[in-house]
Design brief:
The complex is a heterodimer of chains A (about 600) and B (about 575).
Chain A lengths: L17 H12 L3 H17 L14 E7 L4 H15 L3 E6 L5 H6 L2 E7 L11 H8 L10 E7 L9 H12 L3 E2 L4 E3 L4 H18 L24 E10 L10 E6 L12 E4 L5 H10 L7 E4 L2 E4 H7 L8 H11 L2 H7 L2 H8 L4 H7 L7 H7 L6 E4 L10 E6 L3 E4 L2 E4 L1 H9 L5 E6 L15 E6 L4 H13 L5 E7 L2 H4 L3 H10 L4 E6 L9 H7 L1 H9 L3 E6 L1 H19 L3 H13 L3 E5 L1
Parallel strand pairs in A: 1-2, 1-3, 3-4, 4-5, 4-6, 17-18, 17-20, 18-19, 20-21
Antiparallel strand pairs in A: 7-8, 7-16, 8-13, 9-12, 9-16, 10-11, 14-15
Chain B lengths: L8 H8 L7 H6 L8 H6 L5 E5 L4 H6 L6 E6 L6 E2 L1 H14 L3 E4 L5 E6 L1 H13 L12 E6 L6 H17 L6 H6 L23 E6 L13 E8 L2 E9 L18 E6 L4 H15 L10 H8 L1 H12 L19 E4 L5 E5 L5 E3 L8 H11 L2 E4 L5 E6 L4 H10 L10 H5 L1 E2 L17 H13 L10 E4 L13 E7 L2 E6 L10 E7 L1 H18 L6 H7 L16
Parallel strand pairs in B: 6-7, 7-8, 16-17, 17-18
Antiparallel strand pairs in B: 1-2, 2-5, 3-14, 4-5, 4-13, 8-9, 9-10, 11-12, 12-15, 14-15, 18-19, 19-20
Classes of the chains: A alpha/beta (about 600), B alpha+beta (about 575).
The structure holds siroheme, flavin-adenine dinucleotide, flavin mononucleotide and iron/sulfur cluster.
Siroheme binds next to strand 1, strand 2 and strand 6 of chain B.
């Protein structure tokens, strides 16, 4: 998504002479879009600082802002970019920085820190933010008396530890003596509006502190905003859909091919594509009926007026419960039980598990609830992410997905995951799938094509590795590739088996280790294979291999523990050193996780 | 044989196999595939095991980006086809635990397991070992199972002839301990064993030996590379007529391939049997074509060398001349069903096993659990026949009521209720396991029999003894070229029709039509049955009748003659 800015081709005499101009062109050409953006801000800042400015202008120091992000799946990273861009248009000198690369020393230097941080795992900070998180929350946290900061927390209100990482950072920085520019904002999955407001408030506050009047933007429209968003997704025709698991499998996983031609969606291998889903019509119908409301009743939604049925189908989340909903509904229902739950995080999480909005409505009917009141309780239906299983180099204009439909039965009713079953059951080939790219993931192939990679995945977690290998195949990347794959049964669930075997025969896939948990008496998982291959694995790591883990959260956790064990056993390190070794892989950007 | 042509790839694999070991141990440990290494698919055959895949799901698995459903077929080494009750029960247990739950009695009186996954091979073979059974050289370029007449009527000579089958089999066993090493966790050898008889590259192709006891030709001795026809004189085994150069395999496209009935080349005494065997085997070892596997069987070696030259070579190698052939007469290659009482007070029962398959829950087949009960009631010897049937041998008078009760309870004795066409019919395995199948065979047989029964009934011929054999491809595993009616698969639903063998299996039939569907098949047979019903001589078989009236162009090779 590089900026489409018309650059002067000729020497802009008399401003620059030919030598200067070419020097600048050469320098600029070598920069990545992100670097360019930064450099432009930097140059603008220089001008503000008066270095390159005509002597006649009043000398004013530009206010420097650092937008620091901790992001796992790219939402926060993309948001940080937008915040910085907005700041620059307001004349600030703004820099975005991944927490992963943020050094302790800078904490004392940077005066204005805007933190955007998501929460993962069970209330954990993203991998890339863990080191900084440990630093600021730990005993050796630096004193930050001169620091102004603000925190935007990203999260998902259906998790018990909602926006926990953001809360941690917020409290830690305040405890270290920092001054809040504005109160922290905790964003649910529908973060856009809240994030926009936070941005304006923070920048407004910083503006107040500026000695002179705000200047007009130095760099007009530097970064193009993504063309497609949750509210305006691209309709990608479904080219093909086929099952990957064999008949008789206890699992069900599908391969989908989407046509992105014309969308100008530019993704990299390792990215995930966001799908804007709509709820199953039967569920919407049942809910409307249970509410004794008219599906045709008009309700105002953030995107304008809709009928209630339409709004419930495509605007609001009804398959997952969140605390805010329970709180609001509890008030309307005047239910002590619900009220009690809303303040008991653990109890609420347990209670919400296996329940959806229809359950709540059925268990606690409210008389006379209006369509609008009800709609206002719901959270906006967030997009779902799916790892892209193809490389844009191998399949330009396409995105392949590996989707496991989520189905389960609970409380006497069959339940259907919104997005996953829509992709598998409710869309047919040729239909447009509403998609957009929510930001780039940290989950990336190493820049060095010679660097070995170790890919660990279970189930649909194998999807991005298909993209990785396609990419390395197209590029002729000489780096060695090792795949650990796990699923239930070898004969039915070995996703993309023929492709891995082909790559293995071709020599692209150097090592292939598989674990099928249900093929034998004792369960065997990828982490068991990691332990079996400890010596070789450690040798690869010592040679600089990058490590990837993708798939279910539980697996991510177990693999992480196993890795520490592997390093301890093969490297002859005591437990704490082994753990530090693995943490260090994270901090040096060689250990990437995409767990969900 | 010296030739300028390069050796076939299988020769390289055999040479490199270190005494039939190949890289099998590594192959078995590959977790990411259900297959073994490509070269090992050849090596593993010498251990009696074929790599296959379930062809019913092949295309769908390919679509789903999965490898084929690799699985293995294992065939018992079972010279003479004799088992005891304990062994049977172990086999049935094994089929349930590791295979597809079926036992398949083969056209060479052995048993095959289908659907064994790679990880189950070792436990399965270890279970076999516990009941003193193995699968060594049941496949591969080596002497295969030695088969012998199973007909209980011939029980006087049966014991003796069976003994010779055992001795020949033992004599031609490979020396390699690879089987023990790989499957039974035997100590690995440092230096691969010498194979004094075979050498490093074993034989150019499979080699099959049969022992017949006239007048029963249930073994189809003329379909074998080497055959011994027992000659009974004064109630004793005088010796054997020797036959060489039989074989069925051909291909639809390679016109240099053909089925061939064996030549009778003389007579030998029992003491000479091993010497003759070794001479024939080594003559083939040294003269067989090792470049072109389609020309490697003994039948081609003989036709290339000339029969006289070959026989002279055999006599040179054995160190003696064969005696003149003694008179022997065969009347049938089929089985006779029902009870036979023996002089010693015991009795034998020959049971018709449809399709050779024994499996539970499929009404067209005999139930495995029923046969298990039967075997328990009998407790004694079992013999498998070369028509894919089963004999309970030497049933004691004490056990007989029990046996009869089980027969009744599970409805196991089908022969009396089926037409002779049905009980005499044979089909090869074909789909879904056989990689070479072009058309259905075993699975098609029940429907085909129904249609043919109906057709025969139109002419009151349904009690007629007609031999019908079906194969899914021209390799001829059910010996279709020695049937009065032979169907040879070409494509799904399409078969070549061969007609006109004699009932004793001494004359090849003739291909009369190609690529017939069932309607075409019935239309072709209808007028022939009509004439047969009216014009046959007394006791004349269908094949002989067609020849007498010259309806096939009176020929004994399948290359000519098409009914107008
Ligand atoms: C099971 C059996 C048929 C049956 O329904 O009973 C059988 C089944 C197969 N035969 Fe056969 N043959 C069987 C008796 C025969 C016979 C009959 C006989 O020997 O009396 C013949 C014809 C005689 C002959 O050898 O000429 C026979 C000629 C072949 C051939 C053709 C050989 C040739 O010279 O051209 C092949 C293919 C090959 O070897 O290349 C073959 C190959 C095969 C294979 C192993 C396919 C393969 O090579 O991958 C079949 C396995 C199918 C499956 O899924 O089980 N089978 N095969 C018989 C096993 C006998 C045993 O216990 O050892
Ligand atoms: C970065 C990233 C990459 C991803 N990549 C992939 C991918 O490649 N392939 C893929 O299939 N998915 C992937 N996912 C997961 C995907 O985004 C969705 O979360 C998933 O498909 C479910 O969404 P849904 O809309 O179908 O289900 P929803 O309607 O969101 O329902 C899911 C909810 O149902 C509940 N639930 C599910 N099962 C049960 C049960 N048995 N009992 C009780 N409650 C249950 C849980 O509360 C769960 O939160 C990825 C997620 C992330 C974050
Ligand atoms: C596996 C997983 C676990 C999560 N756990 C939490 C959690 O415990 N609390 C929370 O508030 N949000 C949780 N979230 C939601 C994310 O914080 C949210 O999707 C956020 O927008 C991601 O931002 P990012 O892309 O910048 O990482 C989780 C998301 C995933 C995929
Ligand atoms: S005849 Fe052909 S199809 Fe039938 S089992 Fe033999 S090789 Fe297979």
């Amino acid at each position: 998504m590089s900026a489409v800015v018309e650059l002067p081709r000729r020497v802009p005499a008399p401003v620059l002479d030919e030598g200067q101009f070419h020097e600048l062109r050469r320098f600029a050409d070598a920069l990545s879009p992100e670097q360019l953006l930064w450099a432009s801000g930097y140059l603008a800042g220089l001008q503000g600082a008066g270095v390159a400015a005509p002597a006649a202008e009043p000398v004013a120091e530009a206010v420097r802002i650092v937008v620091l992000y901790g992001s796992q799946t790219g939402t926060g990273a993309a948001l940080a970019e937008r915040v910085a861009e907005r700041a620059r248009t307001l004349g600030f000198e703004a820099e975005t920085l991944d927490m992963l690369r943020y050094r302790r020393a800078r904490l004392r230097e940077d005066r204005n820190l805007l933190l955007i941080v998501s929460t993962h795992g069970d209330g954990d900070p993203p991998d890339s933010a863990q080191e900084l998180h440990a630093l600021v929350t730990g005993a050796k946290a630096p004193k930050l008396a001169d620091t102004h900061f603000a925190v935007l927390a990203l999260g998902d209100a259906s998790y018990p530890r909602f926006c926990q990482a953001g809360k941690d950072f917020d409290e830690a920085l305040a405890a270290a003596g920092g001054t809040r520019l504005v109160e922290r904002v905790d964003c649910d999955l529908d973060y856009e509006e809240a994030a926009g407001q936070w941005t304006e408030r923070v920048l407004g506050k910083l503006n107040e502190q500026r000695p002179d009047t705000p200047r007009v933007a130095a760099v007009p429209g530097a970064a193009a905003r993504p063309a497609w968003t949750r509210h305006k997704p691209f309709a990608a025709p479904l080219l093909e859909r086929l099952p990957l698991t064999a008949e008789g499998s206890s699992r069900e996983v599908w391969h989908l091919e989407l046509d992105l031609a014309g969308s100008e969606i530019e993704f990299a291998s390792g990215d995930s594509l966001s799908i804007v889903p709509s709820n199953p019509p039967e569920l919407v119908e049942a809910l409307v009926e249970r509410l004794s409301l008219d599906g045709d009743a008009a309700v105002a939604t953030p995107q304008g007026e809709r009928t209630l049925a339409e709004a419930l189908a495509s605007r609001y989340e009804i398959t997952r419960l969140t605390r805010p909903f329970v709180e609001r509904y509890a008030a309307a229902a005047e239910s002590d039980q619900l009220r009690g739950l809303a303040v008991d995080a653990e109890g609420l999480a347990k209670w919400m598990d296996g329940r959806d909005v229809l359950d709540v409505v059925a268990e606690h009917p409210v008389q006379g609830l209006s369509a609008q009141d009800f709609a206002d309780m719901l959270r906006v239906l967030p997009a779902r992410r799916y790892s892209i299983a193809s490389s844009p180099l191998a399949y330009p204009d396409e995105a392949h997905l590996t989707v496991a439909p989520v189905r389960w039965a609970s409380r006497g009713r069959d339940r259907f995951g919104v997005a996953s079953t829509q992709l598998i059951e409710r869309l047919t080939e040729g239909d447009g799938v509403p998609v957009f790219l929510e930001g780039h993931a940290a989950f990336r192939l190493p820049e060095d094509p010679e660097r070995p990679i170790i890919m660990i995945g279970a189930g649909t977690g194998v999807a991005p590795y298909r993209a990785f290998l396609q990419e390395r195949e197209v590029l002729g990347a000489p780096g060695r590739n090792w795949l650990f794959f796990g699923d239930r049964n070898f004969r039915t669930d070995f996703l993309y088996q023929r492709e891995w075997l082909q790559w293995r025969d071709d020599g692209l896939l150097t090592q292939l280790d598989v674990a099928f948990s249900r093929d034998q008496q004792d369960k065997v998982y990828v982490q068991d294979r990691l332990r079996e291959r400890a010596a070789d694995l450690y040798a690869w790591l010592e040679e600089g291999a990058a490590l990837y883990v993708c798939g279910a959260e539980r697996m991510g956790h177990d693999v992480h523990q196993a890795l520490i064990g592997v390093v301890g056993a093969a490297g002859g390190l005591p437990a704490d050193k082994a753990e530090a070794y693995v943490e260090d892989l994270k901090h040096t950007g060689r250990y990437h996780r995409d767990v969900y | 044989m010296s030739t300028d042509k390069p050796l076939s790839d299988v020769e390289r694999i055999k040479t490199a196999s270190r005494g039939l070991r190949g890289s099998l141990i590594e192959s078995l440990n590959l977790r990411h595939t259900g297959a073994v290494h490509a070269d090992d698919t050849q090596v593993i055959k010498f251990h009696g095991i074929y790599q296959q895949d379930d062809r019913d799901v092949r295309a769908e698995r390919q679509r789903r980006k999965l490898e084929p459903q690799y699985q293995f077929m294992a065939r018992l080494r079972l010279p003479g086809g004799v088992l005891d009750a304990t062994q049977w029960l172990a086999l049935s247990q094994l089929a349930r635990a590791y295979g597809d739950g079926s036992l398949r009695i083969t056209s060479r009186q052995s048993i095959q397991f289908h659907g064994l996954f790679k990880e189950n091979l070792k436990p399965a073979l270890q279970d076999l070992d516990r009941v003193l059974l193995d699968t060594i050289s049941a496949c591969g370029d080596i002497n295969r199972n030695v088969i012998a007449c199973a007909n209980p009527n011939r029980s006087l000579l049966h014991g003796e002839v069976y003994g010779w089958a055992q001795r020949i089999a033992a004599h031609l066993m490979p020396r390699s301990r690879a089987y023990h090493e790989i499957w039974l966790d035997g100590e690995p050898v440092v230096q691969p064993e010498d194979e004094p008889l075979y050498g490093k590259t074993y034989l150019p192709r499979k080699f099959k030996i049969a022992l017949a006891i006239p007048p029963s030709n249930d073994v189809d001795v003329f379909a074998h590379d080497l055959g011994f026809v027992a000659i009974e004189e004064e109630g004793r085994l005088a010796g054997f007529n020797v036959t060489v150069g039989g074989g069925m395999g051909r291909s639809h496209t390679n016109l240099a391939t053909y089925p061939r009935v064996a030549d009778v080349i003389g007579f030998c005494t029992p003491e000479q049997v091993l010497a003759v065997t070794e001479a024939v085997v080594t003559a083939q070892r040294d003269n067989g074509d090792r470049s072109d596997r389609a020309q490697a069987r003994l039948k081609y070696t003989i036709d290339r060398m000339g029969l006289d030259v070959f026989v002279a070579e055999v006599e040179r190698r054995s160190g003696f001349d064969l005696a003149p052939t003694r008179p022997a007469r065969f009347d049938t290659s089929g089985d006779e069903f029902g009870w036979v009482d023996h002089a010693d007070g015991t009795a034998s029962l020959a049971l018709y096993v449809p399709g050779g398959r024994v499996v539970d829950g499929q009404p067209e087949y005999l139930p495995l659990s029923g046969l298990d009960e039967l075997v328990r009631a009998h407790g004694g010897e079992l013999r498998l026949t070369c028509n894919q049937n089963l004999v309970l041998a030497g049933v004691s008078s004490a056990a007989r009521p029990q046996v009869e009760a089980v027969l009744e309870r599970f409805e196991l004795d089908l022969a009396p209720r089926r037409t002779p066409l049905e009980t005499g019919a044979m089909a090869c395995v074909a789909f879904p396991t056989c990689p070479l199948a072009m058309a259905e065979s075993e699975r098609y047989l029940p429907a085909l029999l129904q249609s043919l029964n109906a057709l025969l009934a139109e002419f009151d011929l349904e009690r007629e003894n007609l031999s019908l054999r079906v194969t899914g491809c021209p390799n001829g595993c059910a010996r279709p070229y020695l049937a009065e009616i032979g169907l040879v698969g070409r494509a799904p639903g399409l078969y070549d029709l061969h007609l006109g063998s004699d009932r004793a299996g001494a004359r090849l039939n003739t291909r009369v039509r190609e690529s017939l569907d069932e309607a075409g098949l019935l239309d072709t047979l209808r007028p022939l049955f009509a004439r047969f019903a009216q014009e046959r001589a007394d006791g004349e078989g269908f094949g002989d009748f067609l020849h007498r009236l010259d309806l096939l162009g009176a020929t004994s090779t399948s290359e000519q003659g098409v009914i107008a």
